[in-house]
Design goal:
The complex is a heterodimer of chains A (127) and B (777). Chain A has one domain: Orthogonal Bundle (Helix Hairpins), CATH 1.10.287.3510. Chain A has 127 residues and is an all-alpha fold. By secondary structure, chain B is mainly alpha-helical. Chain B has 34 helices and 2 strands. In chain B, α5 packs parallel to α17 and α19 crosses α23. The chains are: A mainly alpha (127), B mainly alpha (777). Chains A and B meet through α1, α2 and α3 of A and α26, α27, α28, α29 and α30 of B.
Chain lengths: 127, 777
């Protein structure tokens, strides 16, 4: 089973990387989305997935039963999902602002700084 | 040891204090700052002089304060004859330099005097630390501090491009050499388990016998050669003459450049048994002497000539350390003293002449004795010592130099080199003292600044000391030269540092040297003019190699910047991804657990396999879809599939959150997509897409192996078990995941909330006020 998980996560991450390399800013954001979903899954898998009962202490007991799933990765992922959401929401707002300010969604048009030339031109001409 | 333990750190601290108050003092005392501030080095000189009898009697005074005990690094100090001699030179000449600098800068703004004196005092502290430190790590820290202050002083006139370039050059050469030295020090520490010079000297046999002795010797020699401007690192010192003259006199003739010699002398006893050590020193020293003598004949500037002769003198010192025998030890120490006296005096005179006329070239200076009569006399006295004429101390030290060479087991070659180079020194001495001051009176008709007491104190005191020591060498021989030479030799030497040795072969050589030297001085113009036309030799002996290396490094940096930082975000991401892939792959392959592709984690659960396949399908659809909306929906498919995976593995909270977040994101991104142009084009060329696909495959492949290996390894469940055991009993919550979030890791959750709040604020800041879009693509 672990190899199936490994394959699925790796495939999602590969697709995320491919999108991240795009020059279209929306596709970059989609790449971030895919990568963060796959990373959450990776954390989940790293906790071991043998037991499938929710990690809740049953009414009569004082400690977590043997059949319960590992609670630690779940807690980490809950945090990660929310932060990932905040990140993507911010990136999406940035995309919109970039488009409004620069009139393009392609990063090769976002070159106002490069158009100003190298800040080291003077230095390099001196040797 | 009580209060006594703090004596040497105290000496250094007082010098540092001088650096701190120099600026304030300059603001208060203005033109008189030099005189006032010279009290600091005078006090230090007195404190050190008090130690002379103790060192002459017992040899070594050690004190120690722990600094980094865990690393075995101690603030330990060692005062022996050799370090005492250096410390006295540093404070003694330092006093004169401070006085001279105050007068030299008297017409300049007060903050400039303050800044200059501050640096001089900082340098003084660094020098004292270097020569007094017993711990090699402490010594190295101070050693590098001298390089830094030298950099600041050479670049003091920061408005001049030449000064900045020379400062950088000296920093790169001496700082780089310092790092090499540091490597050597660390090797010594690893081999002997100590950084203490005292202990290293005691266990020198052990170090010489170790298999690392070769690398250690080479590293330490390179460090010393860079600092003392030996071939092939000789080029930085003449360029360092961009520094204000008081700094040149102090750093680049009398003290700092002799640190390399100091270091070699320190380790002379340790490495004396290695045959290559002495040979290398004699060869490098002789080459340096020849190159510098040649360059001295070619040099035009007043200070440049002096600088080249300083390089030659440093070559003589290195060669002397390479020679064995007690005469060589005495000759080394004697020459260090003689050279510090006459060369600092000559630099002072050069500074006064340049300051008065604004001319730096020897050719344009002349007849200055009319305007600067006392300086002219001092210059002549100092140069007589430099020429090695009796009754000056320079004569005695030269006699010893020849005696050391004749008594060593070397053949005649070093003697010939020494005769030639010393003859050039005589010529230089004649040219720098007589020409600018007594000849060519038409060249200079007026001067901007005359002599002031501050400008005269240094050269006069040093030049007269040159005669006094020459006439009465006994006192100095017993108190300073003897202990220093004994330290250098390793055994007590009975020094007879006398003016008259009788009719010896050395005297004959001296007569020969002076005769040739006088001829060189007379025919200076012809030789000088002839050599200036030999451009090829000039390039071979100049800093061409340095410039080539520096140019190559900068060129490489420029080319790699053009490749790596070409302004295209696609390139940046690709570089980062490639680096991550490589890092992961290297980490995995070299890791302790290794790579494994064993199927574990129980039998296949088909519902899960189907859901995972769906998630992969969603991801693939995202990248293949031509429409952004379709891509967004496909990402949503992957997100929901992941949520289902959470659900099927006992994580309902996660599934719920993931569903909610995924829905929100799809809505949010759709809203944004509606505001963006729908037209879609390939943003990458097909070859770029192929390359990116390769990178994506590479990343996926590495991740696959990493995850498979990770899941095959055993899991440490202690933390999870702890939470399961204590969740209800201590935190009174049955949902363990929730308890972890709001109780055990409450601060993390607070941080998470803060992230969301900041993201909200940032989004609000970005999107408030709807700016109209400029359409371009």
């Amino acid at each position: 089973m672990n190899l199936v998980y490994a394959f699925a996560i790796a495939a999602q991450m590969g697709c995320g990387i491919y999108l991240l390399l795009s020059r279209h800013v929306v596709r970059v954001v989609l790449g971030i989305l895919l990568l963060s979903a796959a990373t959450n899954l990776l954390i989940f898998v790293s906790g071991g997935l043998i037991n499938t009962a929710p990690p809740v202490i049953s009414a009569g007991s004082e400690t977590l039963g043997d059949q319960a799933a590992n609670p630690l990765p779940q807690a980490l992922i809950l945090t990660a999902i929310v932060i990932g959401f905040a990140l993507v929401a911010f990136a999406a707002a940035l995309v919109l602002k970039t488009y409004r300010a620069l009139g393009s969604v392609f990063t090769d048009h976002h070159n106002a700084a490069e158009a100003m030339g190298s800040p080291f031109v003077e230095e390099s001409s001196n040797g | 040891m009580g209060f006594q333990g703090f004596e040497f750190p105290g000496v250094i601290a007082v010098a540092l204090l001088g650096a701190l108050v120099a600026r304030t003092a300059a603001m208060v005392f203005g033109r008189h700052t030099g005189w006032v501030m010279s009290l600091v080095p005078v006090m230090l000189l007195a404190a050190l002089l008090r130690r002379v009898p103790a060192v002459a009697d017992s040899g070594v005074v050690l004190t120690s304060i722990p600094w980094v005990p865990s690393l075995g690094v101690e603030f330990s100090f060692r005062l022996d004859g050799f370090s005492l001699l250096f410390a006295l030179l540093i404070t003694g000449i330092g006093t004169l330099v401070v006085i001279y600098a105050g007068a030299y800068f008297s017409q300049k703004p007060r903050d400039q005097i303050g800044r200059f004196l501050g640096l001089i005092f900082l340098f003084m502290a660094a020098m004292l630390g270097t020569v007094l430190a017993d711990d090699l790590i402490v010594m190295f820290v101070f050693w590098e501090l001298t390089s830094l202050t030298s950099f600041m002083l050479i670049g003091f006139n920061s408005g001049s491009a030449g000064a900045r370039k020379a400062a950088l050059q000296s920093l790169l050469v001496t700082g780089g050499g310092g790092l090499v030295l540091f490597a050597g020090i660390l090797l010594i520490g690893i081999n002997l388990g100590t950084f203490s010079v005292t202990e290293i000297l005691a266990r020198s046999d052990e170090l010489a016998a170790s298999s690392w002795s070769g690398p250690i010797v080479i590293l330490i020699m390179i460090g010393a050669f860079t600092k003392s401007a030996q071939v092939p690192f000789h080029f930085w010192l003449p360029n360092a003459m961009e520094a204000p003259t008081p700094a040149s006199a102090y750093l680049h003739s009398a003290t700092m450049v002799k640190l390399g010699v100091f270091l070699l002398a320190r380790f002379d006893q340790v490495f004396a048994e290695l045959p290559a050590f002495g040979t290398t020193l004699v060869v490098v020293g002789s080459l340096t002497m020849l190159v510098a003598a040649f360059q001295a004949l070619r040099a035009e500037g007043f200070k440049a000539v002096l600088a080249q002769s300083t390089v030659a003198s440093l070559g003589i010192l290195v060669m002397l350390i390479g020679l064995n025998g007690e005469i060589a030890a005495v000759a080394t120490v004697g020459f260090i003293v003689a050279h510090a006296f006459y060369k600092a005096a000559l630099f002072f005179c050069a500074g006064t002449a340049i300051h008065a006329t604004g001319q730096t070239s020897l050719r344009k200076l002349g007849g200055l004795s009319r305007f600067l009569p006392v300086t002219a006399v001092a210059a002549v006295l100092a140069s007589l010592s430099m020429a090695g004429l009796p009754p000056f101390v320079g004569f005695i030290s030269k006699e010893y130099l020849f005696e050391a060479q004749l008594t060593s087991d070397w053949n005649v070659v070093p003697v010939v080199v020494a005769v030639m180079v010393n003859a050039v020194m005589v010529g230089v001495a004649g040219v720098v003292s007589i020409r600018p001051f007594y000849f060519g009176s038409k060249r200079v008709t007026e001067v901007h600044h005359g002599e002031t007491p501050g400008l005269l104190a240094g050269p006069l005191i040093l030049a007269s000391a040159g005669i006094l020591i020459g006439l009465f060498p006994d006192a100095l021989a017993r108190t300073l030269i003897g202990p220093a030479a004994s330290q250098l030799y390793g055994e007590p030497i009975d020094v007879s540092f006398a003016l008259w040795h009788g009719l010896t072969p050395m005297l004959a050589l001296s007569v020969l040297v002076v005769t040739i030297g006088v001829l060189i001085a007379i025919f200076w113009d012809k030789i000088h003019g002839g050599l200036r036309h030999r451009k090829l030799l000039a390039e071979a002996f100049g800093d061409g190699g340095y410039r080539w290396v520096l140019g190559a490094i900068l060129g490489f940096a420029r080319r790699s910047t053009r490749v790596l930082q070409n302004g295209d975000q696609h390139r940046y991401t690709a570089v980062v991804v490639s680096a991550v892939i490589m890092g992961l792959a290297i980490g995995m392959l070299s890791g302790a657990t290794g790579v494994s592709l064993v199927p574990t984690g129980g039998p296949l659960r088909w519902p899960l396999v189907i859901v995972l396949a769906l998630s992969v399908f969603g991801a693939l659809a995202t990248i293949t879809s031509r429409s952004l909306i379709a891509s967004l929906v496909s990402v949503g498919v992957t997100g929901f599939a992941v949520a289902v995976v959470f659900m099927l593995n006992g994580a309902p909270d996660l599934a719920l959150t993931q569903f909610a977040v995924e829905t929100l994101l799809v809505v949010l991104l759709t809203a944004i997509l509606l505001r963006l142009p729908a037209r879609r084009r390939h943003s990458r060329t097909s070859s770029e897409r192929q390359g990116d696909a390769l990178l994506a495959f590479g990343f996926a492949g590495v991740m696959f192996v990493a995850i498979a290996s990770m899941t095959a390894a055993p899991i440490d469940l202690r933390l999870s078990e702890y939470f399961g055991q204590t969740s209800y009993l201590e935190a009174h919550g049955r949902n363990v995941v929730n308890v972890i979030l709001v109780d055990y890791r409450a601060i993390d959750t607070l941080g998470e909330i803060a992230v969301v709040v900041f993201a909200t604020l940032a989004v609000w800041a970005l999107l408030r006020g709807a700016a109209p879009a400029r359409t371009k693509g």
